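Deliverable D5.2: sample structural annotation.
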Amino acid sequence: MIRRAETAGGLSVPRRRVDGVRRGRKRVTIREVAQATGLSPAAVSYALRGIRTSEETQERVRAAAEELGFAAHPIARALALGRSGMIGVLCGSLEDYWQQSLAIGIGRALFGRDRYALILDAAGDPERERELARRLRDQRVDGLIVQSLDPAAPLWAELAEALPVVSIGDALHGGRSQGEVVFDNRTGVTQALEHLAALGHRRIGVLTSTQPSTPDRPADRYVNAEAGRLELEVTSAVASQSWTEAAETALEMLAGPDRPTAVFCFSDSIAYGVYAATRALKLHVPGEVSVCGYDNHPMSALLTPPLTTVDWDIDGVVDAAVRVVVDAVDGRAGGRRRVVRSPALRVRDSTGPAPR
């Protein structure tokens, strides 16, 4: 059954429906929309894209396209607009639960803006990260959001010449990224170490995922600076974002007689590994070892005991990163943008007075 419906400008357009459902048929083409509107296919294409045509024509063409059931093929639309609709999201390590939540949040926020996230995992390997970043560029994503393992790599300045790049966590080499959502790590580190020092801790272990190739990460540098100011004895070690592997590193740190009385971890996932190590060593948290994280992942409040941690407001991080990258892709950025996230220490039961 073919019904006809009036559209803008008095145009009568065939509508092929049976009880609101289209008959099984091939995809409606732009040529059919052109025939229904009396315009050329090129004019219809321009009208659907909102360019080179009047608002009246655009309204008429869109109404006809809707009545006919026309939907632009995503590949054809990408070619016409010079965009893919895809935003690359390159995570340093998805073994980190906070980064998992970050990727999920970014994917959902991009979908709400009619974009799609292509999420890749560098698995804690800086070389893998660089290779995946190049592949995202070569696949012509419209933009890139990255929480980099190696922010000092020269590659980032090169990529920024080809597409909008937005970093989360640290500023990237060269300063030519379209934007950055950075953490006020000095304040975050200060809050955590001052809290432990006020509880009487002087020997503090620090577990960080920073690679030997990137020793100048701001957060790590601030630990040494604050340790000197607070007269703390700090022992640092590199730990994986995988809590099972972090547990092995924590076991080595806590097994000796001069073990630290508190452990400060640069991610909650690493702190989960410390919990596992203390249980293997039959050490009480916080009676014998206090533990502090750095993400406030939702699961951290559910641990026994709940984890003291530094909160960066992940929803705010997601909103800022997506807003900056979408504005850059759409040409609304107005220059390089820098968003600084402030921390808040969430004191829970995993930290207590230093043992005597």
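Annotation notes: The mean pLDDT is 88. The CA atoms of residues 167 and 180 lie 5 Å apart.
The annotation will be released with the project's public dataset once the embargo ends.
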